[in-house]
Amino acid sequence: MTQEKLLDLLEQVRDSTVSPEEAAKQLAAFENLGYARVDHHRAERQGTAEVIFGEGKTVDQIENIVKCMMNRGAGNILITRLSKEKETQLRGKFPYRYSDAACLMTANPMEQTLVGSVAVVSAGTSDLAVCEEAAQTAETLGSRVERIYDAGVAGLHRLLAELDTLTKARCIIAVAGMEGALPSVVGGLVSCPVIAVPTSVGYGANLGGLAALLAMLNSCASGVSVVNIDNGFGAGFLANRINRMKGVDET
Amino acid sequence: MTQEKLLDLLEQVRDSTVSPEEAAKQLAAFENLGYARVDHHRAERQGTAEVIFGEGKTVDQIENIVKCMMNRGAGNILITRLSKEKETQLRGKFPYRYSDAACLMTANPMEQTLVGSVAVVSAGTSDLAVCEEAAQTAETLGSRVERIYDAGVAGLHRLLAELDTLTKARCIIAVAGMEGALPSVVGGLVSCPVIAVPTSVGYGANLGGLAALLAMLNSCASGVSVVNIDNGFGAGFLANRINRMKGVDET
Amino acid sequence: MTQEKLLDLLEQVRDSTVSPEEAAKQLAAFENLGYARVDHHRAERQGTAEVIFGEGKTVDQIENIVKCMMNRGAGNILITRLSKEKETQLRGKFPYRYSDAACLMTANPMEQTLVGSVAVVSAGTSDLAVCEEAAQTAETLGSRVERIYDAGVAGLHRLLAELDTLTKARCIIAVAGMEGALPSVVGGLVSCPVIAVPTSVGYGANLGGLAALLAMLNSCASGVSVVNIDNGFGAGFLANRINRMKGVDET
Amino acid sequence: MTQEKLLDLLEQVRDSTVSPEEAAKQLAAFENLGYARVDHHRAERQGTAEVIFGEGKTVDQIENIVKCMMNRGAGNILITRLSKEKETQLRGKFPYRYSDAACLMTANPMEQTLVGSVAVVSAGTSDLAVCEEAAQTAETLGSRVERIYDAGVAGLHRLLAELDTLTKARCIIAVAGMEGALPSVVGGLVSCPVIAVPTSVGYGANLGGLAALLAMLNSCASGVSVVNIDNGFGAGFLANRINRMKGVDET
Amino acid sequence: MTQEKLLDLLEQVRDSTVSPEEAAKQLAAFENLGYARVDHHRAERQGTAEVIFGEGKTVDQIENIVKCMMNRGAGNILITRLSKEKETQLRGKFPYRYSDAACLMTANPMEQTLVGSVAVVSAGTSDLAVCEEAAQTAETLGSRVERIYDAGVAGLHRLLAELDTLTKARCIIAVAGMEGALPSVVGGLVSCPVIAVPTSVGYGANLGGLAALLAMLNSCASGVSVVNIDNGFGAGFLANRINRMKGVDET
Amino acid sequence: MTQEKLLDLLEQVRDSTVSPEEAAKQLAAFENLGYARVDHHRAERQGTAEVIFGEGKTVDQIENIVKCMMNRGAGNILITRLSKEKETQLRGKFPYRYSDAACLMTANPMEQTLVGSVAVVSAGTSDLAVCEEAAQTAETLGSRVERIYDAGVAGLHRLLAELDTLTKARCIIAVAGMEGALPSVVGGLVSCPVIAVPTSVGYGANLGGLAALLAMLNSCASGVSVVNIDNGFGAGFLANRINRMKGVDET
Amino acid sequence: MTQEKLLDLLEQVRDSTVSPEEAAKQLAAFENLGYARVDHHRAERQGTAEVIFGEGKTVDQIENIVKCMMNRGAGNILITRLSKEKETQLRGKFPYRYSDAACLMTANPMEQTLVGSVAVVSAGTSDLAVCEEAAQTAETLGSRVERIYDAGVAGLHRLLAELDTLTKARCIIAVAGMEGALPSVVGGLVSCPVIAVPTSVGYGANLGGLAALLAMLNSCASGVSVVNIDNGFGAGFLANRINRMKGVDET
Amino acid sequence: MTQEKLLDLLEQVRDSTVSPEEAAKQLAAFENLGYARVDHHRAERQGTAEVIFGEGKTVDQIENIVKCMMNRGAGNILITRLSKEKETQLRGKFPYRYSDAACLMTANPMEQTLVGSVAVVSAGTSDLAVCEEAAQTAETLGSRVERIYDAGVAGLHRLLAELDTLTKARCIIAVAGMEGALPSVVGGLVSCPVIAVPTSVGYGANLGGLAALLAMLNSCASGVSVVNIDNGFGAGFLANRINRMKGVDET
Question: What is the ipTM of this complex?
């Protein structure tokens, strides 16, 4: 709730158009399921409905949260890190779309017009799951996505061949495990924001993705920022936000 | 150099308008000072001139790199992490602006029209240096900046009072040391991209800023990405890039 | 054994009311089962019976320890981190209460009058198991508990709506994984002791809960202390101790 | 501001006793000095005035913050981690008390009636500075403090000799560097809350205090919680809060 | 593609022998399978065909990549970290050789003349899998290999007895887990390059191989360099490269 | 082989009593099984036969190594970290004794006269496996062992009651997980060498035993040294060596 | 105080030979200087007087502790990690011996008959300070010491040439920085206890001595235990204790 | 000493040409200065004289070691990590060459014919010191060196412009701090061995060079191995060894 809306509300209270109890209720606009407080304000506050982190929630909890949101009209509800096993148990409970590759469910899916351009570029084939989580998140939220997979720095020409696509993107998601060098190289070639996603692909001194994470945080290229290891969702969400920005001159 | 320009160049070579030697030279458009290769293409490739990392470079090296860039017409050349001591030795060598608080020099400073809105919000007074590095970087590159300092989560009302400024920003830089909670709280309140900057402020288990860094990478709020510890420059650079984006409909 | 009791005992030895051998035995008031030394003094010394760490003990060991304690009259014996599988094998051996959600058994359960108020507030639904371990521990030891779950900082209004409950609590347990920001925000709102419990909920750079742990240790809010990752029991135990304190004026 | 006060305020707005603008101002009750937002609500919200973290602030900033608080009537304002050098520069600016041992300043000192009992027990002589920061913080806030220094576990009888003082305390602060074993041993002897403070005393594999911190977090004794390395202030603040609690029966 | 070949290509473009489109295609000489970009240039650029990292790829992906490479005439295609289970599923799809011990497949195997001498020396029997990955990689690429297994430093005479073989080798791969001391001892005895391979063999403070890795990086012997934990492939690849070098006088 | 024996050997070579080839063979007195070099010299060099690390070796390898050693007359051959499953497969291959609790096998067991006194003291019941590995190793090698289990520092009187046994021991093995405080407390009470064994018992911030390890390395008590996490074997081996020492006056 | 002495004391109390107050005093046999509790029992309990950790204590504190101990007749009082600067200020306060190389002071030095044999062997010249701290500690406590410096594993013959001295020692202290391989090699050659001391010598991935520490903890040689990084004192103390042991047959 | 020479020696002993005492002396061919054992065999064993690690040695120790080596005819003696201050004190003691940039001294410098080609390529200007240590080490040992500095991946064309030099090198040293991506990119372009040197250049999450180190260990390019952080010497030494190899066909 913006400051402006807050002042409006207070004025309505003063004018007795709204009772104090009603005002207090509006400030607390979420539903309490006991184990979860469903945040109905989020779309208004942040432009998209609440996203459900599927890991560590039971199938029943997920079903109830989704239905609670659908009752308030929410669509394209993202559920991340949802195992194939849970997906099977949710069949028939509500309409959805599910991606095996990304372990990503979209409950109550709706048509979207895709706009702009987000490029998802990856270092290797094994990064696919994270890439797809990123790409499908951005698409579900309304962005057009270009996929450039397996274009790691050990074979630079594979990357350079896609320079055209890269330079036309409004935002680039660069996904890499192992040494995580890809975002630095991409960052040196383009002039749009680059979101670096380290993955846990690798072994030994990759430390479960920490090596790639640290490399990306220390990128010598400007315009690069980083999200958590394997956090394709976070990258896709942010990329969509950047991609769909209005022009500075329009403001 | 974009793919398009590359094809142009190749066609000019075919038509003998440009010689192969000249083409090769254009592909290598930097100047070699021995200890540094000044990248004259960067502005074209990335929209801004090369930025000089002041730490670990001698005063002579800095002077030569700056002059080399000025000879090619560059202005508003940023030199980061430049100590007061080195600044003193550079007096009179070339025109510049210097900020003690941010250890940031702008060589050959030029007038800029500031556009859009970047908000820099910090958790505490001790984060000031990093905040100013971020704010002044964004300003030098052409963004209008709002400063909201010392608004950490232990006194939430201080932050909530600035909700209006926050929700109007096109990009927010959230700077915090210690537990690094600020970006998560800010991220939950706004709908623009949030760049989180961990600082080394704190002691003991802050591990020189790692605690804040890890917290920010694990942010439960969507739309948040992270840069290196104390990397105000990186945040300011990226925020400017996001702030100055053209609208998706204009593309 | 307090210094006072020690002096009493020594005086009884001097007066030959108690033999030196008997005195030595009283100083060693525990039972040795070979693999375990059951501490019968603990209730006297610390106000509650010994608590059994269920992990890494066999079902036989647990049964014997519990019975040994029950023989000395102990009730409400807590067994933490007890798997469902072990619980099944213990059926019929002795009376107990078991919580699947918390993996917590109370052997020889007894009625308690619940007093005061401990609030357990969590950041997300996935923190439920740790929360219940904390809440049920405090309840078993005699504290009244308020549960406020899924009130993380990415949707602040969910937390602020419970401000009334929070400010009335005598002690608050704040449970969070990921970035662990909740205790700092809660700590800034209340004037009672806050016990922060980091959880291992999250992935990647959460480092199995270390990110949340570090964040909580660096909390910028005063009045916050921290227990081990996922240590709901420890938080519940301490919260009960604080909640049940006598007033400073009564001393 | 409690929920109760908030409802009051809203009702006053409705009854036109308070204007919406005034209500908004009350919600934002802090003073903005640019580099700092002085939190005038904190005493009301949390029972004590804001505490100033001296490290990383300039002498001018500290002076202004203190005066800003004194103007609103605050007394016993704590400034932690304030170097001797800065203290010297602050002479004559405002009344204060300063402890060299603890690097702790109390601006605008006021008389306090000390109540209850907090025991500060340390493992070694080298932990003195942290102990004094804890002890003096608790005293400044109104608690009576008992000091038991250099009573580490390598000479248990030194600790056991103070058992009487320990068992009479309402809260114990256990301070130790190196292996950090003291809080576990103390925790096994008493029935009041124990706050463990790891210190950076030691070398090599002490990892700047991390070894002691980890040990304390893994304490096998119940009733122990932990604060940041060398955070004597945090321990003293929390101990005072616990020590001064009203009785559960009074509530 | 070397600079020389690049100039040739540009000259051919100028002379219209090659069209600009064709030139662009040659610069991008790889095949895009969507999830993988097969790098046909690598043999030319680096002397050996692309190596496939088997972990994290599906059986279908592997089959397609291999066939795509075989279509361009590649032989002795290495697939590392390929589980027995995947190998079973690949039977009959294309000709190959598979080593259970090394989890290493050689697709489209071809006869090789083995030259020079690479010695693989290991500290213990449990390092066998890594050793064989190294040894067989080097053999597949054309090097003669001597195996000296279980010759750790706790029984020095076992190593010293092989001094003759060691001093005759052109490159030595020293494989060790636990404390990783072997490469330092070997490095002190010979005058050829030594490649150290830390393994994850051990437990507790071996930290999954980090202890050995750190030891090897700090080797007091000169002429030692290190590859990733358990990276037998990397060591075998590099050893073959060194072993097969032409003489400095031949250049 | 001692320097003395070496000189003898050289003199025998000079006198042609021993041929150079035979001398070289004696210097290399081990058997090469390909995957293992069985060290027949070790008993002579170090007083006990080679010990076999069971983890990571196949059942066949273990059988062959044991038989190879038995052929040379070795008895009481220790095989550590041998799973129950492998033990089952080894039945009937050679005579042995096996402990489930310690996962320890003694092949070709022989009668021993137990001498001196080694005390194994543990903090908790869950440390049992490590304790038994230590105790049985020492017993197999000829030391009399006293077991004092579950005597952690949270109930000091349990430990103090065994002071008599502790002060009579010639060497003490102190085993603890979690905060690892036991060796420091024991070290402060006795005058014999104390070997500290950290265990991986615990969770969260115990970091798989690192917390206990670090604590023990930083012990404020003198006379304490440390072995690897869960390394009961190493502690038992060393304790036996110390326990069986001849007197300094006998030398 | 042993159990035996305790019983004696209790019996004396019963017979009224000793008053309860006197008994309590004897149990608390230390002197409280406020900042330090001087442990007069330690020599009796552990065979040597308390050792003073010089770092972090003021010159006044050290002087007072030493004098307090001398008043009770203590001699050869060790003060470790005492800087040259503090030593200068202590001149004339009490008799002492000081080693610049080891930063080690022996207050009230007394003649000792040196017995047995402790060998101190180091990897490199830069480990000298730690070696001397170890060697002089052992000498001060009564052990004869052999020094074998700069005999690291990169030049094995330097170590093998001292095999005679090594095999005659009753206890060996092996000191090494960098990769810390020395103790493993030494441990494989001898049959006496080996105390490994990691040093902080090195740079980069030596992590201030952690690399050597980890290596030593993972030593594949049996009979090796480890003390803290740079802890020459601890090694010397323990070596003396082992060296001076009575024979197992004498017990 | 090779096995062959050893047999020779033994035969000479048998034939009484060499006495056993003389043989023992030859096996121990080093000079003992007390604090250092100068290894005169090293040149024979490893092709180059012993290298002196200057850090942590006194000026006197260095002088004596150098003179001791010069007495045996050694030339081009490298002393690494020698501060300017120590160099000043060594003036006139013996002939030498000193590089300020590399903190590297060559005592008793001799003429060398430089052969082959080692390329040293660096990511940034701040890596200069490490680069020069590498380059000058290789030159002193006899290799011709090409320097390509400040060619980091954020401006790829700077690197690609030197492709010709890179592909002609027999061994490449790739030096980088920050994200350490350079060796992966270089490794993908060439077919000679690449030695990666991480530097401590950077700040925050570079963790003193660990970020670059980890990245390089995880390099997705084959043919890359790694040395310690800032270890220019180690890289230069190894590169020279590889560069000067004889051809495999000559063996």
Answer: 0.88
